[in-house]
Amino acid sequence: MQKFILILTFIALTLLVNITLLGQDERIKLMTYNILNFPSSSNTVDNANRANSFAQIVESAGADAIVVQELKSSAGADLLLNELNNNTSGITYAKAPVYTGYGGLGNMLFYNSSKLGFISQTEIPQVNLDVIGSSDNANPRPPSHYRLYVQDPTLPFHLDTIYLDLISVHLKASSSNGGGNTIPDRERRLNGVQDIMDYIVTLPSDRNILIGGDFNFYDDDYGTDSDGNGYTEPGYGELITNGFVDVVGPWIRETMSYLHVFSQSTRSSTSSTSLTYTNGGASGGFDDRFDLWFMDGNVFTNTNHIEYVNNSYQTFGNPGILDGSVLDGTHPLKNELHQMSDHYPVCLELDVFYPQNCAIVPTLNSVNTNCIAGLGSGEISINASISNGNTLEYSIDGTNFQTSNVFSNLANGNYTVYVKDQMFNCLTNQSNINIGCSDVCAISQINVHQNCTGNTNGYTIDIDFNAINLNGNIVNIKIDGTTYGPYAVSGTSPNYTVTIPSNDFTGDASDLETNVLIEVEDPNTLSSANSVVLLNEVMINADGSGSTTDNGSGEWFELFCAGPGPCDLSCYLVGDDDYAFIIPNGTVLQAGEFYVLHGDNLSNGNGGPLPAGTAFFNWDDNLNATSIVSLAGSSSVGGLTNSGEQAYIWDTQGNVIDGVIWDDGSTNLGNTYMVTLPASCGGGTLSLSQSTSVKTVANDGGGDALPIHLSTTGNWATNSVSPSPGSNNISQYPIDTSPTSSQCVAMTTYDEQTCGPITAVSSVSLRVLLEGPFDSSTGQMHNELNLQNLLPNQHPYNVAPYNYTGGTSLTSFPPQMVDWVLVEARTSTMNTSRVEMKVGILLQDGRITAVDGTSPLSFNLTVGSSYYFVVRHRNHLDVMTANPVIQSSLMTYDFTTAAAQAFGNNQQKIIGNKAVLFGGDMTQDLVIQITDFDAWRMQPAQISVYTPIDANMDGIVQTTDADLWFFNQAKLAPIELNY
Question: How far apart are CA 933 and CA 973, in angstroms?
Fold first, then answer.
């Protein structure tokens, strides 16, 4: 019977949680109301009575936002607002700041300031009209747009504002067919709706639009007169066909079956005689639907956190009597409705769903990039965590998410990485993650590991390094000038390891030498490390006459890779004294290839076509705008002058690689300029000098299409052939085709470390008991998680806060296994210094063993030293040995014999005659406190689960787990146990 009750409780709680997740966070009621020529200019008493009636109607309806029509003055708005705020509900109303009276009949908005905030007001322009003769036929009263936002108390957490857009309309009245200089009234109504549609397309996509007011529509037909009553309304059709929803329509005026949607008139000819002031209202009785609400698809489908409440649309005060007055009905405010206006208010309700409160968001710990091979082999690896332990998902476009944190085969460029909580969609991101791979051999990130050979100070070394495009996976190692190898590397791109055998190299650490130089070299591959890139040709005065040498909008620079290997131009700069152009990351030329920076499409001029292998940078195509930086700041990007100028190539450190000065240079010669690189190039700041230490050329003063070039003798001269960027033009140094050594080299240094201490493998036998599963009658722990097949094959300590990277797992479990535990060895001189971590399995009698269920855990410990041992469990308070244990081949420690066996005061409790660990640290933060109860409270009824909030470890989350927490609350572990 108890089990049955538990299941019912679980189902009930699950339903409650689901209902809570589906329920709205706020409800807002809207009202549209034609208030009939308010205020009257003739009688202040009547105005006061009507304002009081208005306030009673609004309060009785519970309206939060009211759009009104036929308001005649700003003073009238103030009068209504004062009466609204004299309510019994404690609501404070505010109004839109501006009143615009169109022929004395304007719109206004009143709103509940505790639910809504005001952003803006716009009077929608009249752009649709029909001109007949000298008459402009337009909707007589432009609509008013009021943009509001929801007063969401969780906004500071998610920063996702919910907007509400209300449009108040009062279209042309009557059903005249027009004549002379006028068009039919229905066409003027259409003009007014078209004004609204033209305006709406300018609004942002996060809009929630509702259009309310006095539309004066006589029917819902807009194409043909389907009901045969002689009316069509093209304006109604304009709304419906543009995605706006009339949740009530269709209707036929003056018909009994549509009484529930009519909104005019509150007055009959008989009832009007009871009014001292009618204010010109219609007295035809209840027979027309002129006042309506339309909503866009966002509201109807809850696209932007606001949704129409089904069946909430109503005509407030509807008497249900055709051609009768409101006085013929039974509504308690029938006298107020009768006095206030000849229209009934029309209301509807909206549900507001606040965006997920992201008080807990993922933490981006690190983002690592690699080049696995050459171009297109980029890799991004994301290391993230979240304190609630939820599953994380990863993306590099913000749209497509995956559970893997690694993205491979990426092209060069900048990326933004995103991490979100799979359950709640709480998101974090980091931008400007750059991938810059190339086809050039590259070696980087060299790390040296010293391996002691025994009790002496002799050592060998292992070298880890990153490399792409290794030739044959063979490297040479140079140590302090002596070359060893070649050696075959182990690993796959980009992560490699090479071991120097002891018969080749055995170091001596007795002198503790520092800054020992290590070089790693691919002996078979050329790289750009020693290749030469030249500023080869400059078009200093383009032909503007349309000839074959015309370069249209600007000059050009030509770079040439003179070898001996490829030239990596990534993030190099080229420029004159006005502007510098940053060559995109990942730009590599092979020996003999060209790179042209220009201001036009060169395929249409300068004698093309261009040879294969020519790359380009077009400074006029807008694609490279972020890679153009101003120096002296000419008004013409890339504009050179043939009367005196200079041009340079700068490397990624700001050094001048090559350059030329012609005709004595410009007045800026010798200046220095500071520039900031884009994020794709690291975002650093460089100092670019207009150096005078480059070659010069005298300008012959020639005219159009005048280039200068670097000749085969290494001097600059004016060209003797037609300028053609990207071709030989007999103007570059010959390529060195016979390199004598590899240029794929990288280096680092290391400091020798003493090789004194000797380590040995120690078996560590520990015993500990957990309070949650402990049974004092047997002196052992139950193994319900094992019996119910709930134990995970992979240990649970590979996530924060433990972050253990070992891959311990099981395919089957020892029968006595209770759970996984994590054990740390710490030095005795500083018990916060972790030496090694191991995952073990906990048996029912408290023994901690290796995964075979029999052997003790083994640690590699220094001979003769002493160690503390820490035992961690996923929902119990962690403990550390009270005293250090000296290293030996077998080291034993039993926490269960006394509470004082744990380091610190009262870190275990006694149950029966056994010391056990305190249960209830469900959030794994070394403190048993209210946050642990909160974790239980959020998911209090679960069955067949393996989760930290199952404190007594029986596979069921229920009140017994909270009880365990209750008796242990306010317990905390010593600070030395912090992760």
Answer: 18
